[in-house]
Amino acid sequence: MELQTVADHVGDLPYMTLKKAERLRTILRKYGCSQLLELGFFHGVSSMYMAAMLDEMGGGTLTTIDKVIAKDKSPNIEELANELGLAGYVQPIFEERTYLWRLMKFIEEGRKFDFCYLDGGHNWSDTGFAFYLVDQLLVDGGLILFDDFNWTAEGKPWAAKMPIEEQKTSPVERTWELLVGNHPRYKRLWVKGGWALARKKRKLPLLPIRY
Ligand SMILES: C[S@@+](CC[C@H](N)C(=O)[O-])C[C@H]1O[C@@H](n2cnc3c(N)ncnc32)[C@H](O)[C@@H]1O
Questions:
Q1: pLDDT tens-digit series, residues 91-148
Q2: Atom number of ligand 1 nearest to Cα 16
């Protein structure tokens, strides 16, 4: 399905734009990703774009997680997927509290993905811990794409009681710098237009020790 078809259908629903979807398609095509994981779908706009990309590329699955409150969106992800005929590509999961819990289940089940779009829970604990959990789920060569690289909670009414330093600090940028940057298995590819993309390196074979 063409991305334009999704754009026409979702209109001005937040969040992902057609322009960003085109950038994302370039990434998925370049690295041949087809087993996709998304953290945070809201109405499911980005999910529909990714499902359309899978359709265009000849197959694959998007597993996407949000909170149960996302069911109350109008339209919600299931409605959008049915209206567009893309439901076969999308597995939406509605968690009671947090995607972190479902990621634990996925690790227990041995699930594997070749791409993760992290677009929800932009606080230090949800973003930082999600990175380590997603690492367990990514195949060698898999990608993690962070949205809202420079986003901070500053100015948001719900953040008023947070320490000022925490309000002013971007949790995604800190995760990128301190956790992804210091992780021996990750190569940071680029930061551009609010996105940051990293790739999990292949494991090097252990060389025999000669005495
Ligand atoms: C910016 S919206 C996602 C937008 C969507 N990816 C798009 O581009 O159309 C962020 C979503 O993340 C969800 N979210 C935030 N923290 C979460 C958590 N800990 N567990 C599950 N979902 C979470 C919110 O409920 C919200 O729907």
A1: 999 999 999 999 999 999 999 999 999 999 989 999 999 999 999 999 999 999 999 9
A2: 8
CA 39–ligand 1 middle distance (angstroms): 6
- How many domains is the chain built from? 1
What separation in Å is there between the alpha carbon of 109 and the centre of ligand 1? 23
Listed in sequence order, the residues at least 6 apart from 198 whose beta carbon sits closer than 8 Å to its beta carbon are 143, 144, 146, 176, 180, 186, 187, 188, 189
Determine the pLDDT at residue 183: 97
- Model pTM greater than 0.85? yes
Point out which residues pair with 69 in neighbouring strands. Answer: none
- The answer to whether residue 210 sits within a structural domain is no
pLDDT of residue 127: 98
The residue-averaged pLDDT of 181-204 equals 96
CATH number at residue 128: 3.40.50.150
pLDDT of residue 209: 79
In the reported structure, the alpha carbon of residue 96 is separated from the centroid of ligand 1 by a whole-number distance in angstroms of 13
Is pLDDT at 204 greater than 80 in this prediction? Answer: no
User: Which residue CA neighbors atom 17 of ligand 1 most closely?
Assistant: 121
To test the pocket of ligand 1, the residue of 42, 73, 158 to mutate (highest count of ligand atoms within 8 Å of its CB) is 42
Domain that holds residue 142: 3-200
Query: What 3-state DSSP class applies to 93?
Result: strand
Q: Is residue 211 a part of any domain in this protein?
A: no
